[in-house]
Amino acid sequence: CINTGGEKVFPEEVEEMLKLHDHVADAVCVGIPDERFGEVICAVIESPADVSASAFDHAGVLLAVSSRLAKYKTPRHIVLVDSIGRSPAGKVDYKHLTAIAKARLNP
């Protein structure tokens, strides 16, 4: 659960909305520390092989989520990765992806 501005957000709910977009092959949401909100939602996204980073539709992805969920559930940041890196059982290393997101957002 990500606590952003006092609101609790279940990452799986946001991830499912992200995966509905054509530019998203897989997605994971992580909480990134934020001075004002405590945490903000960061979407770590693996795009399909035929969508380059320069062609990725950031605004369209965020609009698709915000049109289906409350505004506070919309990710504040998007980080693109080559692979989410799920285990054979489909598990995600949230700690690793959080570290990647933090490093890319705060170089």
In summary, what is this structure?
With 107 residues, the chain is of the alpha+beta class. 27% of the residues lie in helices and 27% in strands.
Quick one: biggest sheet?
Answer: 3 strands, mixed
Helical content class: 25-40%
Number of strands: 5
Query: How would you write the strand order of the largest sheet?
Result: 3-4-5
Strand content: 25-35%
Measured between the Cα atoms of the first and last residue, the distance is 26 Å
Oligomer: single chain
**Mean pLDDT metric:** 95
The whole-angstrom Rg is 13 Å
Give the uncertain stretches in residue-range form: none
Individual helix count: 3
Structural class: alpha+beta
Any idea what the shape is?
globular
The H-and-E topology, N to C, reads as EEHEEHEH
